[in-house]
Amino acid sequence: MRLYIDTSVFGGYFDEEFADGTRKLFKEIFNLNHNIILSEITLREIEGAPHTIQKLLNNIPKRIVSTVAIDEEIVELSRKYISKKIISEKFKADALHIATATIQRVDLIVSWNFKHMVNVRRIREYNSVNLSEGYPIIDIRTPKEVHNDED
């Protein structure tokens, strides 16, 4: 699967509450079971994160990672989310994450951000905008919902 991973997932690896599901997902990533899409927003956010989080990012095999620059199409779609009041301007970075993943047509966005991403109401609203703008619907899940339960 092509997964867009936001910054909260990297932090979740080291957070007791979220570590189990996150570590199982990263085990699959390190075993090359997924292709990872990262935006320059994620990379910028991780630059200011603790060294352990930066190291986790750097340990992902480069051959399964694609990095996406924020372009005008992404910015425009994120503005539509904000103009429809799905998310406020204050959380523009989260709107950019959603727009990037949508335009990249990922299989899933993976996040621990329950307020702005892993939220049924907001997912429906993002998808309403996506469909009206000619984009596919998106699915947003926690790492716990993504990893293979056989482990």
Overview of the molecule:
- The protein is α/β, with parallel strands linked by helices and 151 residues long.
- It has a single domain, classed as Rossmann fold, CATH 3.40.50.1010.
- Helix content is 50%, strand content 12%.
- A 5-stranded parallel sheet has the order 3-2-1-4-5.
- Helix 7 links the parallel strand 4 and strand 5.
- Helix 5 packs across helix 6.
- The radius of gyration is 15 Å and the shape is globular.
Outline of this structure?
The protein has 151 residues and is an alpha/beta fold. It has eight helices and five strands; from the N terminus they run E-H-H-E-H-H-E-H-H-E-H-E-H. The longest helix is centred in the last third of the chain and has 13 residues.
Question: In which order are the strands of the major sheet placed?
Answer: 3-2-1-4-5
What is the number of helices?
A: 8
Indicate the CATH architecture: 3-Layer(aba) Sandwich
CATH superfamily: 5'-nuclease
The percentage helix is: 40-55%
Question: How many beta-strand segments?
Answer: 5
Cα-atom radius of gyration: 15 Å
CATH class: Alpha Beta
Q: Give the end-to-end Cα distance, rounded to a whole number of Å.
A: 18 Å
Return the domain count: 1
The sequence of SSEs as H and E is: EHHEHHEHHEHEH
Beta-strand percentage range: 5-15%
Mean pLDDT across residues = 95
Q: How can the largest sheet be summarized? A: 5 strands, parallel
Class derived from helix and strand content = alpha/beta
Runs in which pLDDT lies below 50 for 5 or more consecutive residues are none
CATH overall fold name: Rossmann fold
The coarse overall form would be globular
